[in-house]
Amino acid sequence: MNKFWPTFNLTYMQKVKSKSFIIMTAIFMILIFALSNIDKIIDFFDNDSKVVAIQTDNDMIYKVLEKQYKQNDDIEKVEKVSLEKGKKGVKDEKYKRLIQVNVNGGKVDGTIYEKGNVSESEKMTLQSTLSQMQSSLTAQKLNLSEKDLKTLNTPSDVKTEEIKTNDEKQSSDIDPKVQALNSAVVYIIIFLSFFITINYANQIGSEIATEKTTRVIEMIVTSVKPSIHVSAKILAIIAVAFTQIFFIILAIVISIFAFDLKGLFESAGVEYGPETTRIIIYGAVYLILGVVSYISLAAILGALTSRIEDLAQSMMPVTFISLAAFYIAIFSISNPDTMLVKVTSFIPMLSPMVMLLRTTSESTPEWHLLLGIVISIVTCIILLVFAAKTYRGSVLTYEKGVIKNLKNALNITK
């Protein structure tokens, strides 16, 4: 073991001191801080007026609209104006928009004047409000009481009840806002996992392939046991990946305690809940296992590469497997209970990303998630042991093609 640490320290320090590591880590941290303050950044650059003008001859309609817009955080003031003044104000950017409401024979019509395109949500909101007013005016004309109007407008009640099998968790009725944040957290962890695994898998593959193709490894193995050398290399790259993850987590923790995220969550329509903590813990575990398994596989493939020009081709299995896991997870994020997700979540190498997606589903049994962790741990151990066992044979064979080199490596190992 006395020769393990020099190799480990040399590889680790070279990587963490490299410009690419420092720049990428800094970019990640800056992005996290920027996203934590995105609402403040938008407000800083938003020079648009926050005043809404309303033109109507009906005082009741004006009071209802005034109350509605004052509850909107994006609106600071509501003014009652003439049509001409309102249009001029919108053109001069004094008003964010002008709402014109006319009542003709019990029918309530509205027009929105805005510089630029009017959003669909804004049209739907005004339409809903005016429809309620029209119902009230119609009720008055027909001499209906408030109770009759309320009964008339009461929608039918449709209840749902989900039938679970014995091994599935009973629904806990998670708040949609919490569920939205949970999905966002899973999306971010999957993206981070994909980026880190691809980045560091290519680094370890390139590191080992370069040593082999330049014949430097032939001198190294005369003084250092091959299994110790490759173990030090793999663990050093894993340590570099964990260092970057540490700084990313540090940036997230700083953002949570230093910045007011409550307002950001409210504006985004999401909410933090107990399930979110559980998903973050599972996410951290699966992220670590995914990084270890992909780096180990990349080290094996790097050692089987005869020429540096063939490295990209040799690394194709890592690229394809990680892409498959990433796309299955991303495209199924809105429906994590599909058969494809359930089956692939138990397949080694795919499990770290796909099983993480299933943490957002209430129907996923806890033992499925734990089994996914066990499968990933076993996969990591097998790959690390295989890399250490076959490394000596792999780096000393120079046949064309990964399969031929693998056969020769296994024969030498025997």
Automatic annotation (TrEMBL):
Keyword Transmembrane helix: yes
Keywords: Cell membrane, Membrane, Transmembrane, Transmembrane helix
The keyword Membrane is annotated on this UniProt entry: yes
A Pfam match: ABC2_membrane_3
Domain of life the protein comes from: Bacteria
Gene Ontology molecular function: ABC-type transporter activity
Membrane topology: Multi-pass membrane protein
One GO CC term on file: plasma membrane
Compartment annotation: Cell membrane
UniProt domain ABC-2 type transporter transmembrane: residue ranges: 19-388
Spans through the membrane: 21-38, 184-202, 234-259, 279-304, 316-333, 339-357, 369-388
Protein name from the UniProt record: ABC transporter permease
